RNA sequence: GGGCCCAUAGCUUAGGCUGGCUGGAGCACCCGGCUGAUAACCGGGAGGUCGUCGGUUCAAAUCCGACUGGGCCCA
C-alpha cells in the first residue's frame, strides 16, 4: 500500500476552498478559456446591462449578477457560445455630470458654462470609469465571468455612431419628433426628464393645500364665486381656465360673507360637515362658459381665457370639483389649454425662478412664491381655506430637487405610435416572475407615453439633428454623412461630443444654408437601450449581431422594468420590429435584516465587497438562488451561511470522505457511468438522474431556484442515507467487488453533482471536481467549467425511489420506538416487527436488511395485521398510527449478549476517535494497551482480533482492571464501566 | 383613485397554476447523540383555525368573491 498519498484532506472551510480554487483558476487561466470555448457552438444571445459607470455597486447587483452568471455558465456547459460576453459601462448622463459639479461646487448651468463645456466634459469623461475597477473586482470575486478587458462604453465614438444610426432610422420613420409639451423638469439640472426617470424619485413631502375663491364675472356672475382647490399656489398666476365635470352635481351654498359659493355636491360634506344652506343646484354643463376674474392679473387678457370649461378628467373625490388650469404647468392643463386655444403663460425662467412678469414674486424660486401669493390672496379676501397636505411628489432622481411639470420644447420618441407593437412583442417574452408580462410591465406598455428624449445638458450623446433657418431638420446617421455635410473630412480622432460636434460647419442638404445642431444631448437610457446593437458598432462593422434575433436572456433588478428593459424593447420594436429579448428575469429589492429598505444615508447599506469577504462568493450565490429572489428579499447572512453549510458544506464533506477512503483503498474514480447492482447504488443513481432532470428543466426555464432545491434534496439524500447506509460497504473487507462498485458509484455521483452545481456555486463545484481527480486537487488544466453538461443517465427508477422512501419512513417509526424504549442505537436489539404487507418488491429482501442495519436490530419480521395479538407484549414495545392501529413493534431490552456487543461498539468508537485525536493518518498502524473493568474486559476479550483489525493495531494488550501506571493512558466511563487506553504510532514500514 | 404582488408553526418559508390520503422544510425550543463539516453535524419531539368572512364542490391552504393588513408600481 502506498504511503505517499496526500495527507487526509481535512474539510476546509468554504472560504479556504474559494481561495484555493481562485488560485488554481488564475494559474491555469480557466475563466478566459471558458469564455473563449465553444467557438462553433450555437449562439446564445446575451447583453450585459451596463451599470452607471460612476456609481458604486450595491448588494442588489450581486443578486442580479448571480442570476446572469448561472445562466451563462449553464449555456457554456451546454456547448453554446455566448454573444456577447462584453462587460459594459453606461458613461453618459446626469449622474456623471453631477459628480463633477459637486467637485467644483457648481450650483447651476451658468457655472458650467463659465468653466467651459469642453473642460467640463473632459472631466466627465475622466471621472466616468473611476469605479470600474471596483465593479470588476466584485464581479470576478463573485465568479461572474465576462470579458472585462474589452467592455463596451456608451461614450466611445463607434458606440455613439451606432446610436446616431438608430436615431436617424427613427427620424426617417416619423418616430423622432419635436414638440412642446409639459414635462417633468428639474430646476437645478435645468432639463426635462422622462417619465421613467420621474418614477425613480417620488418622495413623501408636505405641500400647501388651499382653497381659493374665483369670483364669477359679469352681470350673471355677481355675488357668486367658485371654490378651487390646489396644492401648487405658485401656478395660480398662470391660471387661464377652470375645468368642471359635465355630469357632476354642483351646489351653490351661502358662504360666510353671505355670497354664493359653488362647489361639487360630493365635496360639500368635507367642506361643511355640519351642513350648509343650499342656494342653487347645477350640473357641470350648466356652468360651462361662465367667466371669472382670474386670481392674479399678470397673464393678461386673451381669447377664451378665464372661463369655465368642461372636462371628463375632473373628479370630486379630492378638492372641490373645479380644477384650476395653468396650461404651462401640467400635462392635463396643457391638453385642455390647447383644446380651448387659450395659449399659455409661463412666468418662470430656466431655474424655475419667477421673472418680472409676476412682479410680487419676481426673483423668487417657484416654491418660495407660495406664501407671498397666498398672503396676497388673503388680503383680497380670496383665500377660502389654507392648510397643508402630506403626499408623494416627484423629485429629481439624481439631485433630489423638487420637480415641476412645465411646458417645454423637446424631442420625443413617439412610442405611442408603436404601442400596439410594444404590447404585441412583449406578449412573446418569458418573464420571471411570469405575472410581469401582462401585469405591471404590460400595463405600463399599454399606457406608454411618448418618450421625452432630449436633455438640455452637456455630457451625453449629442442629438444629431441640424436645423437650418429654413426650418429643414436633418438627422445625421453616421460620421461619414456628417463629414459629407461639412464638405471636409472630420478631424483625426473625432470626438462626437459637445463642443467639438457643434464647431462643425454643417450645410443644410436641402437648401444649402448653414445649419445649427439642436443643442441637446439625449437621455442616457437611450444609450443603454441601444446596447444590444451599439456594442457591436452595428451596422458599421461586421459582427455576430443579427437584426432579426432578440436576445435569448436578460436579467436585472425589478426597477429596470421602467428602465433598461423598457428602452431596449422600444428600440428593438422601432428599429427591428421584434422583441428585444425572449426571456427576462427580474430580482426583487434587497432589504436589510430587519426588512427595511437598505439606505446609504441611514448607514444601513451592506457593502458588497465586505459581504464577499465575510461569506465568500458561493454562500451568497447559493443563498440567493434557493429563495424566492423575485420578491423583496431580506439579506440574512446567518441564514445564508446555514443554507450554504447544509448543502455545499455537506457536499464538500462527502467528497472528503470519498477521498480519504479511495486513497486508503487505492481506488481511483473510473470516470465512466457505473453499472451498479446494489440497491443503494441503483437508488443513488436514480435520484441523481431525477435531480439532473430537474436542474436542467429549471435552468432551461430560466428559473434556477427549482434546480437549487433539487440539488439540496439530492445532497441531503446522499449524505444522510446513501453514505450512512453504505459505510459498511466502504469499510468492509468481505466483498472487494462491492466495495469497488460503491466507490465507482459515489465518485460518479459526486462528479455529476459537481457539474450540476457548477452554474450555481462555481467554486465549490470546482473543488469537488478537482478533489475527485486522481492526484487530488489537479495540476492538470481541467475544470468543471470547461466540462459538458451531464446527459440522461438512463438510471431513473421510480419504483425503486418509492420503495426506498417507504423504507425510510419505516426507519423513522423504528427510531421513534427506540427512543421510546430508551436503548441507544449502538446497542443492538433482537426484533423489529412490521405489521402489514410484504416488503416493497423493488427492494425485496434488501429492504429489511437496510432497516435492520439502520436500526441496529438483529431481525426484521413482517406479520399480518391479524397476527398482532399473538405477539408478546411484555417483550415488545408498540407504535401506533393516528387511528390507533399497531404498525410496528420493537424489543424492549437487549439480551446480555447484545448488551456486550453494544459495549464493544462504544469502546471501538472511542478508540477510533482517540486515533484522530492523536493526529494519526488513515493508514497509520499502532500499538495499543487497553485496560478495562471486568464486564468490559470480557466483552472486548471475546472480539480481540476483530478490534485489533479495525483499529490497525499490530499489537493489542488487554489488562483486567485499571492500569498499574495510568500515566499516558486516556480514560473513559461507559455506562458505569471504565476503559483505559494508551496508543502509540508504529514507525512507518519501509516502502516496498 | 388605478394596477400588480403577498399573507402558511415564535421566525424564514415549500406547496397553490393542474382541489383529494397525517400541509413539507430550515432556524429557534425540548429530549438524546456527536464533538477533526464546529458561528457545525445526526436522530427524535412539541408547535399550524394555511389573514378574516362568504361562495363553488362529495371534497378547498389550493378555485371564485368581498374584506383586513403589508409591499411595489402608476396617477
What would you say this structure looks like, in words?
With 992 residues, the chain is α/β, with parallel strands linked by helices. Strand 10 (249-254) and strand 11 (260-264) form a beta hairpin. Helix 25 packs parallel to helix 29 and helix 28 (736-757) runs antiparallel to helix 29 (762-772). The longest helix is centred in the middle third of the chain and has 29 residues, at 637-665. Mean pLDDT is 86; it is low at 1-11. The structure holds one RNA strand of 75 nucleotides.
Attribute tags:
four-stranded antiparallel beta sheet, six-stranded mixed beta sheet, Isoleucyl-tRNA Synthetase, domain 2, RNA-binding, 992 residues, alpha/beta, 34 helices, 36 strands, Isoleucyl-tRNA Synthetase, Domain 1
Amino acid at each position: 500500500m502506498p504511503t505517499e498519498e496526500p495527507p487526509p484532506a481535512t474539510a476546509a472551510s468554504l472560504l479556504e476552498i474559494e481561495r484555493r480554487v481562485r488560485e488554481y483558476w488564475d494559474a491555469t487561466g480557466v475563466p478566459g478559456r471558458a469564455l473563449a470555448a465553444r467557438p462553433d457552438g450555437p449562439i446564445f444571445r446575451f447583453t450585459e446591462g451596463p451599470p452607471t459607470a460612476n456609481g458604486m455597486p450595491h448588494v442588489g447587483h450581486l443578486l442580479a449578477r448571480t442570476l446572469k452568471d448561472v445562466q451563462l455558465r449553464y449555456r457554456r456547459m451546454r456547448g453554446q457560445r455566448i454573444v456577447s460576453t462584453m462587460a459594459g459601462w453606461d458613461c453618459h448622463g446626469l449622474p456623471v455630470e453631477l459628480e463633477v459639479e459637486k467637485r467644483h461646487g457648481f450650483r447651476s448651468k451658468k457655472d458650467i458654462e463659465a468653466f467651459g463645456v469642453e473642460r467640463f466634459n473632459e472631466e466627465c469623461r475622466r471621472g466616468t470609469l473611476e469605479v470600474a475597477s471596483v465593479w470588476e473586482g466584485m464581479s470576478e470575486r463573485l465568479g461572474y465571468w465576462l470579458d472585462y478587458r474589452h467592455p463596451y462604453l456608451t461614450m466611445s465614438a463607434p458606440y455613439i455612431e451606432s446610436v446616431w444610426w438608430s436615431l436617424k432610422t427613427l427620424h426617417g420613420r416619423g418616430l423622432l419628433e419635436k414638440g412642446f409639451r409639459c414635462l417633468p423638469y428639474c430646476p437645478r439640472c435645468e432639463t426635462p426628464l422622462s417619465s421613467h426617470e420621474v418614477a425613480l424619485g417620488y418622495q413623501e413631502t408636505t405641500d400647501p393645500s388651499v382653497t381659493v375663491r374665483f369670483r364669477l364675472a359679469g352681470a350673471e356672475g355677481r355675488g357668486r364665486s367658485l371654490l378651487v382647490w390646489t396644492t401648487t399656489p405658485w401656478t395660480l398666476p398662470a391660471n387661464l381656465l377652470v375645468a368642471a365635470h359635465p355630469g357632476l352635481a354642483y351646489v351653490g351654498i351661502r358662504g360666510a360673507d353671505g355670497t354664493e359659493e359653488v362647489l361639487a355636491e360630493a365635496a360639500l360634506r368635507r367642506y361643511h360637515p355640519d351642513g350648509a344652506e343650499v342656494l342653487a343646484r347645477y350640473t357641470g354643463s350648466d356652468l360651462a362658459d361662465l367667466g371669472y376674474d382670474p386670481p392674479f392679473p399678470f397673464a393678461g387678457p386673451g381669447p377664451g381665457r378665464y372661463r369655465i370649461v368642461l372636462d371628463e378628467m375632473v373628479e370630486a373625490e379630492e378638492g372641490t370639483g373645479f380644477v384650476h388650469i395653468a396650461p404651462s404647468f401640467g400635462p392635463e392643463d396643457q391638453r385642455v389649454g390647447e383644446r380651448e386655444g387659450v395659449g399659455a403663460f409661463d412666468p418662470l425662467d430656466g431655474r424655475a425662478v419667477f421673472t418680472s412678469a409676476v412682479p410680487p414674486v419676481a426673483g423668487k424660486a417657484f416654491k418660495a412664491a407660495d406664501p407671498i401669493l397666498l398672503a396676497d390672496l388673503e388680503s383680497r379676501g380670496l383665500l377660502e381655506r389654507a392648510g397643508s397636505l402630506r403626499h408623494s411628489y416627484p423629485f429629481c432622481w439624481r439631485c433630489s430637487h423638487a420637480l415641476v411639470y412645465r411646458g417645454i420644447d423637446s424631442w420625443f420618441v413617439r412610442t405611442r405610435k408603436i404601442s400596439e407593437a410594444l404590447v404585441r412583442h412583449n406578449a412573446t417574452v418569458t418573464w420571471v416572475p411570469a405575472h410581469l408580462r401582462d401585469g405591471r410591465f404590460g400595463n405600463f406598455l399599454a399606457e406608454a407615453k411618448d418618450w421625452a428624449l432630449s436633455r438640455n445638458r452637456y455630457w451625453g450623446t449629442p442629438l444629431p439633428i441640424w436645423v437650418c433657418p429654413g426650418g429643414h431638420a436633418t438627422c445625421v446617421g453616421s460620421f461619414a454623412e456628417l463629414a459629407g455635410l461639412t464638405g471636409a473630412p472630420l478631424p483625426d480622432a473625432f470626438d462626437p461630443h459637445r463642443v467639438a460636434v457643434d464647431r462643425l460647419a454643417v450645410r443644410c442638404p436641402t437648401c444649402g444654408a448653414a445649419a445649427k445642431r439642436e443643442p441637446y444631448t439625449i437621455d442616457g437610457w437611450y444609450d443603454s437601450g441601444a446596447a444590444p446593437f451599439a456594442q457591436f458598432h452595428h451596422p458599421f462593422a461586421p459582427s455576430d449581431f443579427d437584426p432579426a434575433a432578440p436576445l435569448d436572456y436578460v436579467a436585472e433588478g425589478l426597477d429596470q422594468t421602467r428602465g433598461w428593459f423598457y428602452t431596449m424593447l422600444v428600440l428593438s420594436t422601432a428599429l427591428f420590429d421584434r422583441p428585444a429579448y425572449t426571456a427576462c428575469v427580474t430580482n426583487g429589492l434587497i432589504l436589510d435584516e430587519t426588512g427595511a429598505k437598505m439606505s446609504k444615508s441611514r448607514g444601513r447599506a451592506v457593502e458588497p465587497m465586505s459581504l464577499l469577504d465575510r461569506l465568500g462568493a458561493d454562500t451568497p450565490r447559493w443563498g440567493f438562488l434557493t429563495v424566492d429572489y423575485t420578491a423583496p428579499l431580506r439579506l440574512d447572512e446567518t441564514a445564508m451561511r446555514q443554507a450554504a453549510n447544509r448543502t455545499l458544506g455537506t457536499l464538500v464533506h462527502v467528497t472528503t470522505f470519498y477521498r480519504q477512503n479511495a486513497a486508503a483503498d487505492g481506488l481511483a474514480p473510473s470516470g465512466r457511468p457505473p453499472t451498479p447492482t446494489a440497491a443503494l447504488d441503483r437508488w443513488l443513481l436514480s435520484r441523481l438522474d431525477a435531480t439532473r432532470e430537474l436542474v436542467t428543466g429549471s435552468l432551461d426555464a430560466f428559473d434556477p431556484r427549482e434546480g437549487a432545491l433539487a440539488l439540496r434534496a439530492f445532497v441531503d439524500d446522499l449524505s444522510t442515507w446513501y453514505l450512512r447506509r453504505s459505510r459498511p460497504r466502504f469499510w468492509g473487507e468481505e466483498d472487494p467487488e462491492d466495495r469497488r462498485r460503491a466507490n465507482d458509484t459515489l465518485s460518479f455521483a459526486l462528479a455529476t453533482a459537481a457539474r450540476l452545481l457548477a452554474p450555481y456555486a462555481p467554486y465549490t463545484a470546482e473543488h469537488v471536481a478537482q478533489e475527485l481527480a486522481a492526484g487530488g486537487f489537479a495540476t492538470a488544466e481541467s475544470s468543471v467549467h470547461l466540462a459538458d453538461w451531464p446527459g440522461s443517465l438512463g438510471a431513473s427508477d421510480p419504483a425503486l425511489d418509492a420503495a426506498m422512501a417507504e423504507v425510510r419512513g419505516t426507519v423513522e417509526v423504528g427510531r421513534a420506538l427506540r427512543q421510546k424504549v430508551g436503548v441507544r442505537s449502538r446497542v443492538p436489539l433482537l426484533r423489529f416487527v412490521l405489521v402489514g404487507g410484504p416488503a416493497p418488491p423493488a427492494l425485496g429482501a434488501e429492504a429489511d436488511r437496510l432497516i435492520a442495519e439502520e436500526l441496529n436490530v438483529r431481525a426484521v419480521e413482517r406479520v399480518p395485521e391479524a397476527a398482532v395479538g399473538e405477539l408478546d407484549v411484555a417483550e415488545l414495545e408498540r407504535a401506533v398510527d393516528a387511528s390507533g392501529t399497531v404498525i410496528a413493534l420493537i424489543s424492549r431490552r437487549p439480551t446480555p449478549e447484545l448488551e456486550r456487543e453494544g459495549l464493544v461498539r462504544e469502546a471501538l468508537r472511542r478508540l477510533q476517535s482517540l486515533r484522530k485525536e492523536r493526529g494519526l493518518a488513515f493508514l497509520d498502524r499502532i500499538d495499543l494497551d487497553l485496560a478495562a473493568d471486568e464486564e468490559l474486559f470480557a466483552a472486548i476479550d471475546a472480539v480481540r482480533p476483530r478490534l485489533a483489525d479495525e483499529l490497525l493495531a499490530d499489537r493489542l494488550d488487554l489488562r483486567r482492571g485499571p492500569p498499574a501506571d495510568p500515566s499516558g493512558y486516556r480514560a473513559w466511563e461507559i455506562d458505569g464501566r471504565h476503559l483505559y487506553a494508551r496508543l502509540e504510532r508504529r514507525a512507518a514500514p519501509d516502502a516496498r
